[in-house]
Amino acid sequence: NDPEVERLLDDLDIAMADRSELFDVLDADGDGRLEVQEVTRGLLKLRGSAEKSDMVACLLAVRNLQGMFVQFQDELQDLRHMTMTDKTLTDKSGEGDGLFIAGVSD
Predict the structure, then answer these.
(1) DSSP secondary structure, 16-49, as one string
(2) Of 13, 26, 57, 104, which shows the fewest CB atoms inside 10 Å?
(3) Nearest 5°: phi and psi at 33?
């Protein structure tokens, strides 16, 4: 922890319980590098205390992601079922290699 960086964050009113996680918070695209734009936008968003509207926005975003994840799981399960069904039919008929690609026939 660099005291100068700590002072700067205090001056900017960046209140984080664990500042060691600041890099991960600022790395918006998750590429392991910080662009000037990511640092600027991230620090501006972290200033001050969280407002109730920020908390509600986060909650809504998490709920949306949960819904998307459930939908993805359902689609993946359907795809597995279709693949297994086609493999079973192909294995019984003795034709093809058991690989099913929608819209493509052996």
Answers:
(1) -S-GGGHHHHH-TT-SS---HHHHHHHHHHHBSP
(2) 104
(3) -130, 150
Cα dist. 90→14, 69, 82 in Å? Answer: 61, 31, 12
Lookup result for tokens 């001050």: 48
Q: Which amino acid is at 31?
A: D
Decide if 82 contacts 92 (C-beta within 8 A).
no
Contact (Cβ atoms closer than 8 angstroms) between residue 100 and residue 92: no
Contact assessment for residue 98 and residue 91, using Cβ atoms and an 8 Å cutoff: yes
Residues 22-32 pLDDT 10s: 888 888 888 99
Count other Cβ atoms within 10 Å, centred on residue 28.
Answer: 14
Task: Look up residue 24 and give its two tokens.
Answer: 């991960």
